[in-house]
Design a protein that fits this description.
The protein is of the alpha+beta class. Helices cover 23% and strands 37% of the residues. The protein contains 3 helices and 14 strands.
């Protein structure tokens, strides 16, 4: 009896360790037992504020500009920002709010984040579903506006398990419930680099396949970039700039009527690219 009393704590410890290992193994073998991590906001939302001083763009007179190069780059960025902000304000706000809530596991193995979102006075109900599959997580956002529409599927998506890349597909709105925007995103957390590309899905429009591509890099001289493609006139605009010091350059064969870079300095004034 005394022998048993002495070894009982040891047996208890072994059993406890076994239970812990068993639970860990179960979670690793069946990741559906754990709520998936929502992809970062940057996977859906380009930070247009990264580009220097676009707030004063509406006041500029392009015919009088001494910073025409920066101004043309900013004009194209602000245009896309305006289109995306007006078109997708509701689903973007709903996605951003999801990070403030905890999910509940559903009978089918998916996880549900459910909450309310206020966007310009109306209150919307958002349901974000995430379901772990073999290679990653499938996402779906349903949004309800009382009296107008119920559980409209505003976007779907997929992210890989390490959360280093994924996609989103956004439908235009409840009145036009068809795919309108495709988003591809990548990031490297260790190197602090990332990129996201928005492409229009408008098969009946000349603008189909137009895109804006934003990236954050580790390059010393220019550590941010945009590529803006207009499918209607088959034109690609390249924009590079230094995030910390504001200087940059733009290339647009149609607007500048050449294939050269056109630069601006840290004060956003035009500058010879050889300087």
């Amino acid at each position: 009896m005394m022998h048993f009393i002495k070894i009982f704590p040891i047996l208890l410890a072994i059993v406890a360790v076994g239970l812990i290992v068993s639970c860990e193994d179960e979670n690793s073998l069946n990741p559906g037992n754990q709520a998936p991590t929502i992809p970062p906001q940057s996977s859906m939302i380009i930070n247009f504020d990264d580009f220097p001083d676009t707030s004063s763009l509406s006041k500029l007179d392009f015919s009088q500009l001494t910073n025409r190069n920066w101004g043309w780059a900013a004009h194209n960025i602000v245009f896309w920002n305006s289109v995306l902000t007006l078109t997708f304000a509701i689903p973007v706000a709903a996605f951003a709010e999801s990070f403030n809530h905890q999910p509940v596991k559903q009978p089918d193995g998916s996880w549900l984040w459910q909450y309310s979102v206020t966007q310009q006075e109306p209150i919307y109900t958002a349901k974000l579903y995430g379901k772990t599959v073999a290679e990653g997580v499938e996402w779906k956002m349903l949004i309800t506006k009382e009296g107008e529409y119920t559980d409209f599927e505003w976007f779907t998506g997929f992210s890989n398990l390490p959360l280093t890349e994924g996609t989103w597909t956004l439908n235009k709105d409840p009145n036009s419930p068809s795919p309108f925007l495709f988003i591809e995103w990548h990031r490297n957390v260790q190197e602090e680099t990332a990129n996201v590309k928005y492409s229009l899905i408008t098969p009946t429009s000349p603008a189909d396949s137009s895109f804006i591509f934003y990236g954050k890099t580790n390059e010393v001289l220019f550590n941010r970039f945009y590529q803006i493609y207009n499918a209607e006139n088959n034109n690609l605009i390249d924009i590079n700039w230094n995030y910390e010091q504001y200087f940059g350059r733009v290339k647009d064969a149609i607007y500048f009527e050449d294939e050269n870079w056109h630069c601006w300095d840290e004060k956003l004034d035009d500058q010879d690219c050889s300087e």
